[in-house]
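Many introductory courses stop at the sequence. We go one step further.
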Amino acid sequence: MTNQPPPFLYTESPDHPGWMTWALADPTRFNSLFGPFLLKVEGQIARVRMTPGHQHSNLSNAVHGGALLGFVDMALFAASRGFGLIEAGTAVTLDLSTQFMGRGVVGQPIEAQVELLRETGRLLFLRGLVVQGDGEGENKILAFSGTIRKPTKRQA
């Protein structure tokens, strides 16, 4: 058996005290289009952040819905890693449901606030919100729920 490097890098963020950086080790894969995420677990909520750029925009200069869906899918895994429930690599998304409520602004951080609803032997049930801005000026962009199948012991 060879020792392969981990597919994801999970380290303390030097620029954001109290936050972890979660990024794909291979910059040629899809996840890298979103750059490194910031991750912070506060109680039962995992906060996953990214800053959308021009490459994530639609023709209205808002964050493209497809980019938001990709972000949410990856945020489920980042949050699950932050909760200590999975190691990155072979878990899979079984379902993902979203309800769009607003538009995201390019160049400003967006945050997925992810809550674990239930864990079974093989499944994680999660839900959350994607928001932009803080406090009273917070813009709710979308709500989501998803299910992840954890890897089996032989896949991990």
